[in-house]
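User: Could you go from structure to sequence for me? I need the amino acid at each position, not a summary. Structure tokens:
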């Protein structure tokens, strides 16, 4: 479920990058191929990790459950590396687009996509790197500590991207319904027929 949740967050990043590219079909095909390779590689690595896991008797007989005693945790670390690489590719392309295409463009929609995208990337990059570091030093029971946090951050940040874009669109729609009158400072709202002075 963690892999599925992270995959949905990554898909939102791909959609955001595709939108910034001006809906270029070549970009969509390339990003889709990279996304599918990332998802497939992650599922394979998780499957190999689950096969490598070993279990022992529970610590306390009164508390039933699995007592994980070992496994090839570097496979999970490789999953975090794949996420890091994918996010780095998406962010690099986004920054390249920003410099070459939107450098002098001050549309609130574009500004929101860039601001949220950079925030998203920084948080997820740091979290993925921390997950990999914990797995690398084999920190015992801490090995799965940040993987749930990574899932939660993917969910929260991708939701924020969608909500902020929706908020910008709502504000734009509200502004387009307001038409300044020729006299005074009144505003006529479309479809209202009444003047607010």
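Assistant: Here is the amino acid at each position, in order:
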């Amino acid at each position: 479920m963690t892999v599925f949740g992270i995959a949905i967050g990554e898909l939102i990043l791909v959609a955001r990058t595709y939108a910034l590219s001006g809906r270029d079909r070549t970009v969509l095909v390339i990003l889709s191929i990279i996304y599918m390779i990332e998802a497939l590689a992650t599922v394979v690595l998780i499957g190999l990790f689950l096969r490598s896991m070993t279990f022992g008797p529970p610590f306390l007989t009164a508390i039933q459950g699995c007592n994980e005693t070992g496994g090839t945790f570097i496979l999970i670390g490789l999953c975090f590396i794949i996420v890091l690489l994918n996010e780095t590719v998406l962010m690099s392309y986004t920054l390249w687009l920003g410099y070459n295409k939107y450098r002098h463009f001050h549309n609130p929609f574009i500004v929101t996509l860039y601001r949220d995208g950079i925030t998203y990337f920084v948080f997820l990059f740091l979290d993925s790197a921390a997950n990999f570091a914990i797995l690398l030093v084999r920190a015992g029971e801490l090995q799965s500590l940040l993987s749930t946090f990574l899932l939660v951050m993917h969910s929260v940040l991708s939701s924020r991207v969608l909500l902020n874009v929706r908020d910008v669109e709502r504000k734009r729609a509200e502004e387009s319904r307001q038409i300044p009158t020729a006299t005074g400072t009144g505003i006529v709202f479309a479809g209202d027929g009444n003047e607010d002075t």
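One structural detail worth keeping in mind: Residues 2-179 form one domain.
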